[in-house]
Amino acid sequence: MTDFVLGGLAGVPARQRPDLLADPVRAALEALDLLDAVGVVEIDPAISDTAATQAAYGLEPRWLVNCVLVAGKRDGEERVAAALVPADKRADVNGFVKRRLDVRKASFLPLETAVETSGMEYGGITPIGLPAGWPLLLDADAAAEPLVVIGSGVRRSKLLVPGSVLASLPGAEVGAELARPAS
């Protein structure tokens, strides 16, 4: 069993606290048999944002992995991907993501659309439980981390996940070109 401790966060296997997971996240963890491979920790929803979580729990930016939903259209078809990048980097939306989606213009999914299509709360959107068929573009540095912090689908908790588990999710594509250092 993995030890779910990172900085000031100490979690338990997700199996022990399914009440801290959004419905699509819980269903995906069950379907993928990951309820013991992923940890969950309850937090104050007021400090759910990346910078506040980092400060409150003494976390390194590389341990906090943000999930942004990006979309573009091609021949009238909307194409969506999740980009997973550490807090000290920014997704290359107008380069790498746009080319991967094979669209002329890529942009962040509007807030209402992101919440509706993911079934998750804004600020808690996570790659686990997103609609099937969406590519999960994962930064190579995040995939190499022993443990990272991601959303749980709700703002009142975070998941503690080995980078290798993220890389093994259905639709995951690991790439060094996805993100650039934040300026």
From TrEMBL:
It holds the Pfam family tRNA_edit. It comes from the Bacteria. InterPro entries: YbaK/aa-tRNA-synt-asso_dom_sf, YbaK/aa-tRNA-synth-assoc-dom. Residues 45-163 form the YbaK/aminoacyl-tRNA synthetase-associated domain. Coiled coil: none annotated. This is YbaK/EbsC family protein. It comes from Amnibacterium soli. The lineage of its organism: Bacteria, Bacillati, Actinomycetota, Actinomycetes, Micrococcales.
